[in-house]
Amino acid sequence: MTTIALDAPPEVTRHIGPARTMRHGLALAWRGILKIRKNPEQLADVTLMPIIFLLLFAYVFGGAIGGSIESYLPQLVPGLAVMTVMMASMTVGMNLNTDVSKGVFDRFRSMPIARPAPLIGAVLADLVRYLICMTILLVVATIMGFRFGTGFVPVVAGVGLAMLFGLCFCWVAVWLGMLIRSPGAMQGLLGMLSLPLTFGSNVFASSDTMPSWLKAWVDISPVTQVADTLRGLFVGGPVAGPLLGSFAWMAGILVVFFPLAMRAYRKRLS
Amino acid sequence: MTQAIEAEGLVKHFGQTKALDGVDLTVPTGTVVGVLGPNGAGKTTAVRILATLLRPDAGIAKVCGFDVVRDPVAVRSLIGLTGQYASVDEDLSGRENLVLIGRLLEMSKGDARARAAELLARFELTDAGDRAIKTYSGGMRRRLDLGASLVGRPRVLFLDEPTTGLDPHARNEVWQVVRGLVDDGVTVLLTTQYLEEADQLADRITVIDHGLVAAEGRADELKRKVGGQTLQVRPTAESDLLAVQRILAELTGTAPTTDLDAGMVTVPVDDPVLMSTVVRRLDTAGITADELALRLPSLDEVFLSLTGKSAQQSTVDTQKTGSLT
Question: Can you tell me the distance from the alpha carbon of A158 to that of A147, in angstroms, rounded to the nearest whole number?
């Protein structure tokens, strides 16, 4: 029998540079993407909800809220794109939580790979998830009669912005995923977090008819800001103002939750 | 002989719980050391410290000469870890898991694939290689987990309760694999609650209890430490019990104990040669026996006397079983 274990003495690695870190991150992103392919039902989880809302609000409430379906879709669809990305960005918390509780992280940590690599991999794979979810939503919306009123570049910019928003928002999920012990508890909490955020915005209805205290929040809420920007980029209208608001929110979320997430990550893994 | 693992005075407290309270451990290169202890004794904590997953509160640990706290990356490049819980991705196939690990260990795509195929073949998982891990049986999964910890050709392998929850057949499979690795020159540190497992695989055994080393030595040394052998005779006819008792008392000079329910007479002996004398005397007296055995104390009894707790599984370590009919 050939000796397998010792036929080549292992080289001793003592430090891991940034190039290696990135390679490890990419290898783990490949794993994340494989998982999306193997487990499409996990995608369905986050894609289905916005699509159900799309059908429900467009066909049932569309006429009442927006006068007609045709005039309601331009308001609804960009908002739902934000919702989709936000819900998809919650999955990373679930996935990291599962990896930690199942012991997959222990295997990674017992190997000579960079500490942040699993996080980088998870977040990179997340970008692919956002793109898939958003594409599905926009295709269904187009079938229902939604029309992009701008050009190719603004639409791509809009998709990019939504993905960037997801990338910032996912640190909330990473943070919670590292704090909370069981994946089951995670799911409920993340649902509870993302629903009020989407309904407390102008995704479904204009803030004009809301009570003043709610309107005050809805007008400045992150989902409203990003949704308004996407409306401008997808169907036309002002972009600069809401874009500024979006960036402010994204920076704010990142400044607060990225350090929290990193601290919880390091703590959970020490 | 060089030491693959050296640990001195390892201490780790979790709040009020003293998981480790000053544990010394050495594993000579190329040997298997079994760390034995009840649940919560500190076995897993010790492995996690040695595998750089946990920092000790005090004490020093070195793997192949590298300090686990100061040189964790070097240690990680030399070790393989198979945890108590299968730490592979259940959604991916066995092959994908192995390739991923190869890629993380800086192998080229081709090398990682070749290594994965090689390990799948070695662990007889080639046919199941492209199925998701979650469809694997417990034994297959554990074999794959072992394979995963071997992708990087480790010099030191940590097996944290590798057979917990496996049926006897699957356990045997894992044992075979471990023996093969040892033949290849890998140093193994194995934790287990199963005395039989330590007895079967380990060159030396360290018994840990309450975060302290309760005993250390070869299996037979530990057994001898606790007591000598016993001779057991179960006559076919219950009416012969008294006669057997008389013969054994006469031959050993000690009063045997008789268990009427089991129909068994037991007596401690210090001379193994006595066995044949007993056989002759029983034969002369016209007594037939269903069971006639000379046994060392099982590791279970060793464990019990060292830790005051019974192990999960009792093992009967029968050395010779004769039957006279």
Answer: 14
